[in-house]
């Protein structure tokens, strides 16, 4: 799934995916219905997204490339919050090595601002949504 990643213990990438899938499915339920778990799996398999499994959590990231900057978007987080926060420095170091000048993330839960502040994140902008076909 991600070449060169160190998985938990000696498990393979498919084993890590199977174990972490429920964390990501739960996160997708709160993510506005734009993607399902199979969509996420396909993005990871294509290399368009990156899978970060923990022991009790998982994250998915993707690049945002613009003409003047590369950013890493942490867009799907599920499982144990404390462990997710402990993954952030590993993801940040990897992002720097990939040429990223910024990391970002967002979601429907305002509590992320409080949880991420100790890691140096600040609120950047707010996105409002209106469903046209309720």
Unreliable parts: 1-6
Supply the helix-strand structural class. alpha+beta
Major sheet: order of its strands?
A: 1-2-3-4
Distance between the termini: 35 Å
In this structure, how is the largest beta sheet organized? 4 strands, mixed
Tally of helical segments: 4
Anisotropy-based shape = globular
Instruction: Kindly state the percentage of residues in helix.
Output: 25-40%
H/E element sequence: HHEEEHEH
Number of strands: 4
Rg is 15 Å
Average pLDDT confidence is: 86
Strand content: 15-25%
Question: Which short descriptors sum up this protein?
Answer:
four-stranded mixed beta sheet; globular; alpha+beta; 134 residues; single chain; disordered N terminus
Short description:
With 134 residues, the protein is an alpha+beta fold.
What is the strand and helix layout of this fold?
Elements: H1 13-29, H2 37-46, E1 50-53, E2 57-66, E3 69-79, H3 81-97, E4 102-105, H4 111-116
Parallel strand pairs: 3-4
Antiparallel strand pairs: 1-2, 2-3
Word description of this protein:
The chain is an alpha+beta fold and 134 residues long. Helix content is 37%, strand content 22%. It has 4 helices and 4 strands. It has helices at 13-29, 37-46, 81-97, 111-116; strands at 50-53, 57-66, 69-79, 102-105. The chain has a 4-stranded mixed beta sheet with strand order 1-2-3-4, sandwiched between helices. α3 links the parallel β3 and β4 (102-105). The termini are far apart.
């Amino acid at each position: 799934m991600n070449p060169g990643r160190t998985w938990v213990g000696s498990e393979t990438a498919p084993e890590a995916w199977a174990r972490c899938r429920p964390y990501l499915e739960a996160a997708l339920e709160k993510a506005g219905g734009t993607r399902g778990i199979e969509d996420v799996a396909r993005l990871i398999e294509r290399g368009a997204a990156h899978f970060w499994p923990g022991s009790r959590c998982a994250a998915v990231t993707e690049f945002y490339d613009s003409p003047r900057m590369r950013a890493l978007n942490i867009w799907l987080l599920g499982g144990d919050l404390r462990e997710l926060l402990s993954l952030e420095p590993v993801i940040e170091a990897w992002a720097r090595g990939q040429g990223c000048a910024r990391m970002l993330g967002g979601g429907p839960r305002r509590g992320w601002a409080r949880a991420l502040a100790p890691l140096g994140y600040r609120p950047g902008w707010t996105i409002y949504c209106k469903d046209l076909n309720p």
